[in-house]
TrEMBL record, chain A:
InterPro entries registered for this protein in UniProt: AAA+_ATPase, ABC_transporter-like_ATP-bd, ABC_transporter-like_CS, Metal_Ion_Import_ABC, P-loop_NTPase
Keyword terms, alphabetized: ATP-binding, Cell membrane, Ion transport, Membrane, Nucleotide-binding, Translocase, Transport, Zinc, Zinc transport
Region (Disordered): 232-257
Biased composition, class Low complexity, residue ranges: 240-257
Pfam families: ABC_tran (PF00005)
SMART domains: AAA (SM00382)
Keyword Cell membrane: yes
Protein name according to UniProt: Metal ABC transporter ATP-binding protein
Residue ranges of domain ABC transporter in the record: 4-219
UniProt source species: Halomonas koreensis
GO MF, one annotated term: ATP binding
From TrEMBL, chain B:
Function of the protein: Involved in the high-affinity zinc uptake transport system.
Keywords: Cell membrane, Ion transport, Membrane, Transmembrane, Transmembrane helix, Transport, Zinc, Zinc transport
Keyword tRNA-binding: no
Source species of the chain: Halomonas koreensis
Full protein name: High-affinity zinc uptake system membrane protein ZnuB
Recorded family membership: Belongs to the ABC-3 integral membrane protein family.
Pfam annotation, one family: ABC-3
Entry's transmembrane regions: 6-29, 41-68, 88-107, 127-145, 174-200, 212-235, 241-260
Keyword Ribonucleoprotein: no
Subcellular compartments: Cell membrane
Length: 257, 292
């Protein structure tokens, strides 16, 4: 039985259809990335999986007893709520001190345990959020643009950690990301979403599909170029509408990494 | 010992303070201050209705407060801003309550006692109710503590861990109604919300974790009620308002101390200052950056 099976899922928010006819199946050990423009329903799909939005139709079946680790896009903690990093990691269940120390080290932020959560930088907090999600030893890790606020090295570390986690815990990872070039290399499967699933498959197949290019335009080319050259020092935030040179776009795909 | 009205009053005050402290922390963290107000103001309607139907005032207040809290929960996020909605509900409940009281021509009731409390008139039966109610709230909040905290941080984060934020909200709503019902006798309708919020707010500058804040709020609340009771006895002032005044003074002192503490820690050379990475300053602006 797959960890998660979604069949013909429909979700409406405030009377407006946000997702329709979604098909998605996740197995243990898979890293799957959701890509799609703003408002395409990526976060809503994650929220439907954790049960925060009720589907208007279709089936969403989680394996019984499934443990979910969730890293939200944004988490604003009210400044009136005092909260150390250690206390935050202990929510909702307490863990041994040693485990917490290891978790912080693995997240690349050792010794932060006594800091107030509100005093952390965006990148530090993002790492803490991931560390907290991993403490639950999840079967399924959901990441909603989890590398927001991380610098390049932080992002590279982050994806390396995800790959390690998958190997160690054998969990499935479903993540939303806009960093197409990094994502493409880090995922087994890419699902391209725009209210419905436009296309899904291996990164190579999705990149080559016309539906994906129609959705992302010139970005496709960049992503493909980065994917093929496997460069890490990306200049990914070029202005929208600036078409990059596209000699490789139609070249036959290589499966090299 | 319980035959002394001052002892009964002190115990009643302590009971309410202890129950209000952890709950008040959640009210502050979740920005529900007005929510507490609306629930408390509805209590006067509860008083009027229970006198009209000649039922127990405690039960009447409990039911009406619970209905009010539920109504506010249901209506929130349906077109009105929360503060507008609560402003409307709190004051209309109070107004309707006062109007309803005026219909009770046969009964002469001491309205002031309900508006501002009458802690010195707490009887043994009242004390039992207050103790039971306070114990119930402390147990309920203690039992759900972790889940409540997680849900307070973020609804989705809670859901992902298998916690239903709606259920936790219900726990808070229920506890709030119970605290309002037991605090009515102690500080009265108009000042119940103060007993929830002020001790929690006064505790905030000195706390590193939510648990410490709840404990410290309980200490401050207890100090305010017992100290206020004493002060009212010496100064011959109304007890409920004196208790709240003392809490307010403690809040002012704690705010000052908090400011001082922050100033001091800023004056020290901070080792935690984030070093500006060289890469960060040299990053090309988007306009100049091209894909390779």
């Amino acid at each position: 039985m797959p960890l998660l099976s979604i069949d013909d899922l429909h979700v409406a928010l405030g009377g407006r259809t946000v997702l329709e006819g979604i098909e998605l199946h996740l197995d243990r050990g898979e890293i799957v990335t959701l890509v799609g423009p703003n408002g395409s329903g990526k976060s809503t799909l994650l929220r439907a999986i954790i049960g925060a939005v009720r589907p208007a139709g279709g089936r969403l079946v989680r394996q019984p007893g499934l443990t979910i680790g969730y890293v939200p896009q944004r988490l604003a903690i009210d400044p009136t709520l005092p909260m150390t990093v250690t206390r935050f990691l202990n929510l909702p269940r307490r863990h041994p001190v040693q485990t917490l120390r290891q978790a912080l080290e693995r997240a690349g932020v050792p010794g932060l345990g006594r800091q107030q959560v509100t005093a952390l930088s965006g990148g530090q907090f993002q790492r803490i959020l991931l560390a907290r999600a991993l403490l639950e030893q999840p079967d399924l890790l959901l990441l909603d643009e989890a590398t927001q606020g991380l610098d390049h090295r932080g992002t590279a570390d982050f994806y390396r950690q995800i790959a390690n986690v998958r190997r160690e815990l054998g969990c499935a990872v479903l993540m939303v990301s806009h960093e197409l070039h990094v994502v493409m290399r880090a995922s087994d499967r890419v699902v391209c979403l725009n209210r419905h699933v436009c296309c899904q498959g291996t990164p190579e197949r999705v990149l080559a599909s016309p539906a994906y290019r129609a959705l992302f335009g010139p970005d496709t080319v960049d992503a493909l170029a980065f994917y093929r050259h496997a460069h890490d020092h990306a200049h990914h935030d070029h202005p929208a509408g600036t078409p990059a040179p596209a000699p490789t776009a139609t070249a036959p795909l290589e499966a090299s990494r | 010992m319980l035959d002394d009205f001052l002892v009964r009053a002190a115990l009643a005050g302590l009971g309410v303070a202890l129950a209000a402290a952890p709950l008040g922390c959640f009210v502050v963290w979740r920005r529900m201050a007005y929510f507490g107000d609306a629930t408390a103001h509805a209590a006067i309607l509860g008083v009027a209705l229970s006198l009209l139907l000649s039922t127990s005032i405690f039960a009447g207040v409990l039911v009406v407060s619970l209905m009010m809290a539920t109504l506010v929960s249901l209506l929130s996020g349906r077109g009105y801003a929360m503060d507008t909605l609560l402003g409307v509900m709190a004051h209309s409940a109070l107004a309707f309550g006062l109007v309803a009281v005026s219909f009770l021509s046969g009964v002469r009731i001491d309205l002031m006692a309900y508006l501002f409390g009458d802690i010195l008139a707490v009887g043994k039966g009242d004390l039992a109710l207050i103790g039971g109610g306070a114990l119930l709230v402390v147990c309920l909040v203690g039992w759900r503590w972790s889940a409540l905290l997680t849900a307070t941080l973020d609804g989705d984060l809670a859901r992902a861990s298998g916690i239903d934020p709606g259920r936790e909200q219900l726990v808070l709503t229920l506890s709030l109604a119970v605290v309002v019902a037991v605090a009515l006798k102690v500080v009265g309708v108009l000042l119940i919300a103060a007993l929830l919020i002020i001790p929690a707010a006064a505790a905030r500058p000195f706390c590193r974790t939510p648990e410490i804040m709840a404990l410290l709020a309980a200490v401050i609340g207890a100090a305010s009620t017992t100290g206020g009771l004493q002060a009212a006895y010496w100064l011959d002032t109304p007890t409920g308002p004196t208790i709240v005044s003392l809490a307010a003074i403690l809040f002012a002192l704690s705010s000052l101390a908090g400011q001082l503490k922050r100033r001091m820690s800023r004056a020290e050379p901070s080792s935690a200052a984030p070093p500006l990475s060289a890469a960060g300053t040299e990053q090309p602006t988007p306009g100049r950056c091209r894909a390779p």
